[in-house]
Specification:
Layout (H helix, E strand, L loop, with lengths): L7 E5 L4 H13 L2 E6 L5 H8 L9 E7 L5 H13 L6 E4 L14 H29 L2 E6 L12 H21 L4 E6 L16 H4 L12 H13 L4 E2 L3 H12 L3 H8 L8
Parallel strand pairs: 1-2, 1-4, 2-3, 4-5, 5-6, 6-7
């Protein structure tokens, strides 16, 4: 079991929908949080707005750090900043991520390359850095927020799916490498959730189309992160924190034609013609 009471937890992408919910729920668990997001985001202001809704807490915000995780230098800067706090990281949650909607031929390379950096290379860099410390201490937990897109690649989400497929493979391999050192790796595969990521940039025919994710196919980030935190506490290797994600994974394994049918139902395939 991973004890979250008094644990030092580093959350990347802390200003996003999942990040804010992780912050709220982990504070209620009594964790000591180090939050990080892009330099242009005022994390401290967001935390101040959150505090009145929480009441008496046993957890606390240890630090709010700015870091540009779209660059290797930004990852190293974040690691250095955490080292200067002289607080060993018990749990690293790689939550930062971006999305793009559009066919690969319509998305400028600079955009999908940045997506791959933030969604895949950055978690690999940070996990490698902090895993080395955890292995030395024989204790720690790494959490990678992937997506159902790490199992099913739908049209318009090719770049995003590629990053999440990669994160799935990295997490699985790393899990085996660090298991004997009492370091756990949990990979989270949520479906579409009602966070700002649903309003991601669009390109080409997707930008011209009036298509949105149907509400019944979206999930509540409060419930998704509650199940994620429970999985962390139980040292689960993988978690599908909503019914759609769980069903989607089973369909991919046992009914591989079903994801194509789902694409047609929500209108995605129309944009592929």
């Amino acid at each position: 079991m991973t004890q979250l009471q008094s644990a030092v937890v580093l959350i990347t992408g802390a200003a996003g929908g999942f990040g804010q919910e992780l912050t709220r729920q982990l504070l209620l668990k009594g964790s000591r949080l180090i939050l990080t997001d892009r330099p242009e985001i005022d994390l401290r202001s967001q935390v101040n707005q959150l505090q009145p809704t929480l009441g008496q807490l046993s957890g606390k915000i240890v630090a709010c750090l700015s870091a540009d995780l779209s660059t290797p230098a930004g990852c190293e800067d974040l690691y250095s900043q955490t080292q200067s706090l002289n607080l060993p990281i018990d749990v690293l949650i790689n939550n930062a991520g971006i999305a793009l909607l559009g066919h690969m031929v319509d998305i400028p390379a600079v955009h999908w390359e940045q997506l791959m950096q933030v969604n895949l290379i950055t978690p690999m860099r940070l996990s490698t850095r902090f895993a080395a410390d955890m292995v030395a201490r024989r204790q720690g937990h790494i959490v990678n927020i992937s997506s159902l897109a790490g199992w099913i690649a739908m049209p318009g989400l090719t770049a995003y799916a590629a990053s999440k497929f990669g994160l799935r493979g990295f997490s699985e391999g790393l899990r085996h490498e660090v298991a004997s050192f009492n370091v756990n790796v949990t990979t989270v595969y949520p479906c579409f959730s009602r966070t700002p990521m649903l309003q991601c940039p669009r390109f080409g025919r997707w930008d011209r189309a009036d298509k949105t994710v149907p509400i019944p196919l979206t999930t509540d980030p409060v419930k998704v992160m509650a199940r994620t935190i429970r999985a962390i506490e139980r040292n689960q290797s993988e978690v599908f924190p909503d019914a759609i994600a769980s069903s989607g994974r089973l369909a991919k394994c046992y009914l591989p034609a079903l994801p194509d049918w789902i694409s047609r139902q929500i209108g995605l395939s129309e944009l592929s013609r």
